[in-house]
Amino acid sequence: MSSRTNTNSAPSAIAATSMVSSRLAVETSRAGFTDITKEVARFLREVRATEGAVTLFIRHTSASLTIQENADPTVLIDLMTALDRVAPENGGWRHDTEGPDDMPAHIKTMLTGTSLHIPVLDGEMALGTWQGIYLIEHRARPHRREVVLQFIGTTRA
User: Fold this and answer.
1) Are strands 124-125 and 63-69 parallel, antiparallel or unpaired?
2) What is the structure's pLDDT at 40?
3) Which partner for 76 in 33, 88, 100, 150 could form a disulfide, CB atoms 3.0-4.6 Å apart?
4) What is the pLDDT of residues 113-145, one digit of tens each?
5) CB count, 10 Å around CB of 44?
6) What residues have CB less than 8 Å from 141, skipping those under 6 apart?
7) Which residue, 68, 78, 84, is CA-closest to 34?
8) In Å, how far from its chain's centre is CA 69?
């Protein structure tokens, strides 16, 4: 039997004094992952965030957001392979208004999600060592995607 020790840091309380929003345009080249971690960090620096949370929301139904490993690129390849297996283009879908990748893109978005909520501590996102923020393009052709960024919390004067 192994013993486990759980520890908590001291709780911190803030009065959220700011809510700042921005839009991030992301140009995709094809289906796949685009790392947007640096752009979100830049937004937090620009708004002088200290403590709070940042929310990301993608305004599309055929692209999504996720937090995933940022160290080994084969993880992202394997994840795309898995999504393609779950929602293949030749799945007999009825909805194909914009082509054979249209309905699979909607399914992949439903499975992966359209928003993220990340705590901000001492002006930095509280991401783990190997975590990055990705926009996932689910369509075969290039698109211009828009992500709404919103920070709620305290800022430096």
Assistant:
1) unpaired
2) 98
3) 33
4) 999 999 999 999 999 999 999 999 999 999 999
5) 22
6) 30
7) 68
8) 12
